[in-house]
Amino acid sequence: MVRAAVLPAVGSPLEITEIDLPEPGPGQVRVRLTAAGVCHSDLSLTNGTMRVPVPAVLGHEGAGTVVSVGEGVTHVAPGDGVVLNWAPACGKCHACSLGEVWLCADALTGAGSVYAHRSDDGSDLHPGLNVAAFAEETVVAANCVLRAPDGVPLADAALLGCAVLTGYGAVHHSARVREGETVAVFGVGGVGLATLQAARIAGASKIIAVDVSPAKEELARKAGATDYVVASETTAREIRALTGKQGVDVAVECVGRAVTIRTAWQSTRRGGRTTVVGIGGKDQQVTFNALEIFHFGRTLSGCVYGNSDPAKDLPVLAEHVRAGRLDLSALVTEHIALDGIPAAFDNMIAGKGGRALVVF
Q: DSSP readout, 254-299?
């Protein structure tokens, strides 16, 4: 038996309880978690913004040590450190054939399986977003684990599995920020802090962080922000004032709200690029008129998992960490136990802090 955070139903509070995990079958790996990040996507699963089969064990950003492997697994062995990959590409669908593995049509099929059972009543449990990282141990498909990079502590490596891949990819793969360009990042949570660091690594000349909380300015500047704007009705105007009345070259939206997406778009120069990372609900409708689309010539694009290929990008990120260019500890504002996840959700709702990290 292992302890885990179970979502019994959409809209219900998490329950910290014991679950029974089977031994890994063919093509599976059992992992003892070292750490797991508490991501806004987990919160979106609890409130129904994103759908997940329930009851489920949530958590998708994690790293740990291989306990045992099933038949046919050869790329990892017991004792190996691994990073969980919650969206493994099938390699066969149309998106994968185009090299767009982040859009794999079958990446989340594993989330519908039954992978464990509650110890108290034997009820079936699904692995939220494939990997069920909010547990002391988990059993996942072999393609959901990547060998942890050398020289990166496992607790830090957990952040590579979502926040850093997403933020780095938004800058380098989606927006393709060039040296000397100006960047605005909307939302200074875990992903936003990773995005700020990625913009600094890309050589952006001015990096403007935007958040509703004045308290996050120090966090933002430590991550690479050169300027800080407290979100208001005048945000776009303030950003233009900071950029010679032109607007930034690139805006990255990490919130997922219609008003923020619209403001991010308005904050860019003519011909600027806006990348939307935040996950919003269906009720968040963003509107544009045809004339402004023509006149401003701006680009608005979605960004899934940072448009990243984890197998290729993890070594790149690890090199940035080893070289001191990427500070994973700067993303974390709170270390918690499994029981602290509900409170971490409350902090996210209130817009407090960066990444909360569950340490086992």
A: -S--HHHHHHHHHTEEEEEEEEE-S---TT------HHHHHHH--E
Buried b (16+ CB within 10 A) or exposed e, 174-207: bbebeeebbbbbbbbbbbbbbbbbbbbbbebebb
Who's near 230: CB < 8 A, 6+ residues apart? 210, 211, 212, 213, 214
Tens of pLDDT, residue by residue over 72-130, are: 999 999 999 999 999 999 999 999 999 999 999 999 999 999 999 999 999 999 999 99
* Alpha-carbon span 110 to 107, nearest angstrom: 8
Q: Flag whether the pTM goes above 0.90.
A: yes
Whole-number CA gyration radius for the chain: 20
Side by side, the strands of the sheet bearing 299-302 are 227-230, 206-211, 182-186, 248-253, 268-276, 299-302
d(CA 73, CA 85): 16
Distance between CA atoms of residues 357 and 156, nearest Å: 9
**In this structure, are residues 242 and 137 in contact, taking their beta carbons and an 8 Å threshold?**
no
Cα 142-144-147 angle, rounded to 5 deg: 85
